[in-house]
Amino acid sequence: MTKKHTIILQPSGRRGQVEEGVSVRTAARELGVEIESICAENATCGKCLVLIEEGRFEKYNIDSKREHLSPVSTEEANYFKRRPKLLKDKGWEVGQVRLSCQAKIRGDVLINVPEESRGNKQIVRKTARERKIEVKPAIRKYLVSMSPPTLERPIADWERLAKGLETSMALVRGTEEKLPRWHELKIDYQCLRTLSKTLREAKWQVTVSVWNDREVIQVQPGYVEDSYGAAVDIGSTTVALYLCNLRTGELLAAESEMNPQIVYGEDVMSRIQYTIEHPDGLEKLHKAIIATLNKLLKQAVKTANEKIHETAGFDTVEKNARPTQPAEITVDDILEMVLVGNSTMHHLVLNLPPKDLGLAPFVPAIHESLDVKARELGIHINPSGNVHVLPTIASFVGADTSAMILAEEPHKQDENWLLIDVGTNAELVLGNRRRLVCTSTPTGPALEGAHVEYGMRAAPGAIERVHIDERTLEPKYKIVGEEEWNTGKAKGICGSAIIDAVAELFRAEIVDSRGRFKKGLSTKRVREGESGWEYVIAWAEETSIGRDIPITQQDVRQIQLAKAALFTAARTLLKRMNLESPDKIILAGGFGSYIDKEKAMLIGLIPDCPLENVYAVGNAAGDGARIALLNIEKRNEIDNVTRKVERFELPTDPEFQNQFMLATSFPHMSEPFPHIAHLIPHRKADPMAKNFMK
Amino acid sequence: MTKKHTIILQPSGRRGQVEEGVSVRTAARELGVEIESICAENATCGKCLVLIEEGRFEKYNIDSKREHLSPVSTEEANYFKRRPKLLKDKGWEVGQVRLSCQAKIRGDVLINVPEESRGNKQIVRKTARERKIEVKPAIRKYLVSMSPPTLERPIADWERLAKGLETSMALVRGTEEKLPRWHELKIDYQCLRTLSKTLREAKWQVTVSVWNDREVIQVQPGYVEDSYGAAVDIGSTTVALYLCNLRTGELLAAESEMNPQIVYGEDVMSRIQYTIEHPDGLEKLHKAIIATLNKLLKQAVKTANEKIHETAGFDTVEKNARPTQPAEITVDDILEMVLVGNSTMHHLVLNLPPKDLGLAPFVPAIHESLDVKARELGIHINPSGNVHVLPTIASFVGADTSAMILAEEPHKQDENWLLIDVGTNAELVLGNRRRLVCTSTPTGPALEGAHVEYGMRAAPGAIERVHIDERTLEPKYKIVGEEEWNTGKAKGICGSAIIDAVAELFRAEIVDSRGRFKKGLSTKRVREGESGWEYVIAWAEETSIGRDIPITQQDVRQIQLAKAALFTAARTLLKRMNLESPDKIILAGGFGSYIDKEKAMLIGLIPDCPLENVYAVGNAAGDGARIALLNIEKRNEIDNVTRKVERFELPTDPEFQNQFMLATSFPHMSEPFPHIAHLIPHRKADPMAKNFMK
User: Would you say the ipTM is above 0.85?
Assistant: First the structure.
């Protein structure tokens, strides 16, 4: 038997075992990652190039690239010799970059497939909602015209500017606003360094960008109207960046990338562990995320500039005759960034040791929001720009939850709202204007389609919807990227389809309320597979992988555990507030947007509530970050709210354990679910269901 | 005739032409710099090693070390082969370090003679006065004891500390003081990074250093009593650093070094020019001074620790049984630095382009004081520490003048005080509590002993006092380092002796009131030398250089120009204030301390004033820096004062030119000098003196 090696492909995160000696391109295809090629693997087109990265995954330590792949072949070397510019532009070295059709697997290896080489472009589903946010940014711009210094009045450049700025601020903002006097204004030290040169080049007419009504952070020649800001949601898996115009609030670009820290551990606990076990672990994780932020910033600026070129015609150019307005945005025009993320992401991006987030009694280094100069973090916006980091609430209730609260505003409601953000960990906030309580619970990766036998992310080829006919027990499914049901070639199952499938299996009485497959049903789809009982959703010939795609007993069990965790957490908060059920349920995150809320309630993933009061709001954390970016008053608001949120850890007593076990059944045996009662199969024979529907 | 090359020796700054082929050691001796040697130039003792530095001086560009010296000889190479540790410890490379007895001059070269190789250790005369300063530092330390976090109260580390700190601050300072609430306190970002670790290692009992009652900048385990600060006066020639205990105000070390920027230009104008002509000029000058500050900090810490060891006996150790008090100071314990210097030094240390300081209309980048994090400047105190830079008043009236005002407090007087700080440039401040006016004037290097035929700095061998018998016309002189008059071997003349000599030549009627040497006097000491008429102070056999040391006509002329500049500047300010003369004259700087004030008045260097009201206060700028370091309220005070000081440029009209020419005479022809009248020779024959003494 041939030797096998573990391969990880980035940014998809796909991993698996492949045989020694196959090409990287073939190996990638086996793992479901298509790599371009138009020269039939002749080492001529160069479409298939990949980057060989070092890193650590699970037990493997990949120390050297060379040991794990065949050496660079003559053909391959010749290809790169003909492309010196490509190597120079990208800063690549041969050996680090390989032609995936030529390089053969000889050991465990971590491979990065760059965007341009990818066969099926990945869809990352976090997109910002267009949302009305009152625009009151921290950055304001003022045109300041000064008389040049003379021998009679040789006042210094900064004082001259500050006096002019005082006048401009009063003119623009009106005298009724409380504004600083000129000698109370400050200038950022790095900004001061180029002031004298700029003032003279600009002939004493400049546009001054003031942060928070008190600090000058940019001085540009002439009249400049716009400045820009970036809101970033750092998820454990995906990092999403929104580039906004700080004057108009307009969203100019929404970019996302995989979180590169995934190489060091899939979930937050394993990343924390990595920083504990490796002396340079924190530094590595920190640098990785900063590099990704800088990459996203570049991409967003590129996207925004493409948009500017598209909309710019002769008309616009002539009408908009402002000679000093820069035609293109640069990263230097980005003057502020707002960051949100769970507490671990928060610590890692700030280079704070996350150790105590993962050890009892589980405390963050800091709750309150932070303002740090971009240059201190190595973030490539304007070096004088500010990075605002939203407050954390607890070790497992992070700045992303603060942002979600800010976006959804439960603290302004009379009704009781339940906010749920589901990832591998779920954060829950419940309450109203008088009181907010929160908690968190691990839900595992199953709800995101990971660690499920044929689970995959929401990418082309992924089954995203499942319906099972309760008479024939035959399924219908819909694939990402296809318009019609039952068309296209399936590659795997994503998170929303797993919820669908489990709910449908229960509704069609293929599994019982305790999640067990029934035997002896009149369908070939239920069968005993390699790892136990399973239900086949797609037969091999309907797939692009040439294998049956089933939902297994193990998959159903994982969903049961996840939903029980979520349900008991919600129940705990409701008890704290002396409530039977929430008035409204808000599902945040990509997960909430793509699940069928009726089916989620059918399996008891969320408490009972009128279906019309269950909302999926998409990336609420990202929205909250944008709100904080565009409106400085909101930063104060969320600082005050988070200081008052009550944190609860889930109990660990036997009574709670019992509750948890009951909650694994469908929907939840001890709870009434009037709003989905019509969907629940009547199985009076099940003794565990005796309390049900009473 | 043999070829000659220009040699500059650092840190003494001595320069001169030497013949090709002589050894560096011989060349240095010819220029008055002794280099150690005990092996009779056999390349065995290694006492004579020197560092070959690159740099630029005047018209010379020294690009490569190798072209300008003979290659490393076998003997020399063998010496260094036997000393690998020396090279490693110092980070030296052979070729950069040479044995000065072996290396032969082949071109222009800049040589650094390290302290250990110097034959006569240099005395830098700036020393801090012991002065009463009310100690109200920006840094305060508080012991904070916290209860550790629990599952029930998992509040974050910073919030836990901030709440404890609020309590401690109130206890220490009393509730009547206006102190921030816990959520108004901030923590420096870099300090936050190590907070969690420190709190746990310290078992939740720490000493917290708070800057300006609002920002935590250091957290140390256990109880720590003291923190430290450094006050620095950056002169164009000398940099002086004072290390102080911020709790007691005690001066722990006073260190000084030559300003390394001297390599790029002797005076401020040539350094400004250097930054204009070289794209990397500013960066070079900035890095040079920062490196010197870091060197001085290290030296000061070493000195302070030596002092600690000296004073620590068994007694002290037992009485002072505080286990967590660090036995030794490190640079990390220095939590604040205050910087002063002229406007050019101010700009260069802050990395601000000084171009416009040197071009009409002569404006600084900034007047107001600045607070910059030490890490932003690369200054190696605690990276979270603050660097406070005092305000500048004008392009040629810098932060050193602000510091002088702060030290001498003319703004608190009813009388009119005239403050004069003399260097190659003189700054003058005149006024009282109601009004202060200031100006500056170039005085040239003559008053500091430079550019004088046999001028030298106040170092061993320098003549520092001169007296001429008015009957015999014979001189007496005193040499630095000698107790008695007319003992020791003279090497040159330092600034104070030049003033003495010129005044004595005038008093003894060897030169007339217009500064011309009289011919036909009955002394061999007055003679026509190589460069014109001169008066010999020391004959060759009385010197260590084997040559006569004279005062030349040219030297007298230079003093006349310098004193005229100073006098007209003072006169201009007096007129602005409608005053005849000041009530008090305060001479700041090393110069003021070593000149004979009676003789200075005799030649008209300073306006007439009762001699008992003329004070030499030493390094007032350094004192001001220390005051600002030890008392934060003083920073506000000087900010307010400098905003109100009126700046005057000296006029350039013909009337002023005429005034200036008159002022070159001794003392000043149009002015009454009643307080030194008894010293002035009665020369009614001189027609220019006709208005005099009326």
Answer: no
